[in-house]
Amino acid sequence: MTRIIKGVFDFQERVFGSKRTLFRQLGAGQRPLALFITCSDSRINPNLLTQTEPGELFVLRNAGNLVPPQGSPPSGEAATIEYAVHHLHVRDVILCGHSKCGAMQGLLAPQAVSDMPAVADWLKVAGPCVERAKARVPDGASPALLQAVIEQNVLLQVEHLQSLPSVQQSAAAGRLRLHAWVYDFENGGVTAYDPRSERFVPLAESPRRKLLVPMTAAEPEPADPNM
After folding, report:
1. How far is it, in rounded angstroms, from Cα 226 to Cα 5?
2. Is residue 129 within 8 Å of residue 67, measured between CB atoms?
3. What is the pLDDT of residues 113-139, one digit of tens each?
4. At a CB cut-off of 8 Å and minimum separation 6, what does 178 contact?
5. Residues 161, 190: Cα–Cα separation, whole Å
6. What are phi and psi of 209, to 5 degrees?
7. What is the dihedral of CA 157, 35, 186, 113, to 10 degrees?
8. How many CB atoms within 10 Å of residue 212?
9. Which residues are within 8 A (CB) of 204 and not within 5 positions of it... i.e. 6 or more apart?
């Protein structure tokens, strides 16, 4: 705790003063650029990765960056997404998985989470991605299979996003873009799903102006004056 408390003091003494105007503006409300859904893993810092300021990302985090689909029991995930899309009117939702994800490792090796029943039950939200990944990596090579599970989980959770009424309504009106990313924290790389080639490609090569509804078809998108 000493390290954390010292960090708070450093923020108050060094950082807050230099951004006083920003924080004063944030007191009047928030207009985030995007909803960023990612894993709780401590190695991921969404604002550091995207170089965004406070107020620019509405962040949802949990083990495995999972989104329970419509029809699941009430959840904080569904409430957070609905609030971001319906009330804050975010234009973009980024679902970002990451390399060497412990949750996905637990999905591949259930015995590793057998003594954590809550975790094991939660990971069922991602269950179908394992078979999808194995179909892409038939030889079952461990590192390649884990990476495939990570990527297929991101796509599965985007499908779950698309089942939520608030997302469906905004997407149908052309007000929402869904983005599927995977972040490699060891080299700083980010790949994004390209629905045209149906694979993850470096972010710089991914088409930015797309609406991933449905996943297999890139839809035309109204002009965005902010891009």
Report:
1. 39
2. no
3. 999 999 999 999 999 999 999 999 888
4. 92, 93, 95, 158, 161, 162, 167, 171, 211, 212, 213
5. 21
6. -95, 80
7. -40
8. 24
9. none
The structure tokens listed for 96 are 């970002």
Separation of alpha carbons 155 and 180, rounded Å: 7
Tokens at 38, concatenated: 């990612």
CATH architecture of 30-205: 3-Layer(aba) Sandwich (3.40)
The one-letter amino acid code at 28 reads: A
Give the 3-state secondary structure of the chain: CHHHHHHHHHHHHHHHHHCHHHHHHHCCCCCCCEEEEEECCCCCCHHHHHCCCCCCEEEEEECCCCCCCCCCCCCHHHHHHHHHHHHCCCCEEEEEEECCCHHHHHHHCHHHHCCCHHHHHHHHHHCCHHHHHHHHCCCCCHHHHHHHHHHHHHHHHHHHHHCCHHHHHHHHCCCCEEEEEEEECCCCEEEEEECCCCEEEEHHHCCCCCECCCCCCCECCCCCCCC
Residues 166-212: tens digit of each pLDDT:
999 998 888 999 999 999 999 999 999 998 889 999 999 887 655 45
- Domain regions of the chain by residue span: 30-205
Tokens 């928030």 appear where? 30
